[in-house]
What does this fold into?
Amino acid sequence: MTTIDDKCLDIFPHWLNALGDDLLLLLGVVEVKQLPVEARQALVGAMNYVFKSLDLVPDGIDEIGYLDDAFVLRLGAARAVRENLDGLAGEKLAALEKLAAEAEQVRDFLGLALYKRFDTYVVALARGAARGRAATDICANDDVFREFASDVRSFSKGYQKPSFGKDRRSLIKLRAFFEAKLPE
It folds into this structure.
């Protein structure tokens, strides 16, 4: 019988490999002018998390350092798809919905109680800042958005995909970071 951890050990390497591409995909979505403000801010807040110097799991931590970033993008996508996305269609909408659906796997991995704490944390990112840029400023100011978009493209281009072995200890360590760092 396949456990949640077995499933995660198969899925998480793909999420790590796709992190740069996922950011570019979301950048393409937030560039759509018809996107509702709430959806745009949810996505930009999640994307901006990648640039936080103090995130839940430090980026340099072995093979798990970028998994929190991948998780945040999926929860941000899930928030965005709850909005009226009539202005978004085709491949962008399908890709956004795919990322959003993967938030369920984050919930399964973390468990409901920890997931709720994480979801609250991700919601707050739409009001937070990284590199001196708040999501609201990025969404409202074209110059700030262009700078942000440039940083996203640069990160995506230079992203070094970490290796991820199928070691259950990595999952234990990852859950421990979330448990310790997420506000109650």
About this structure: The longest helix spans residues 4-30.
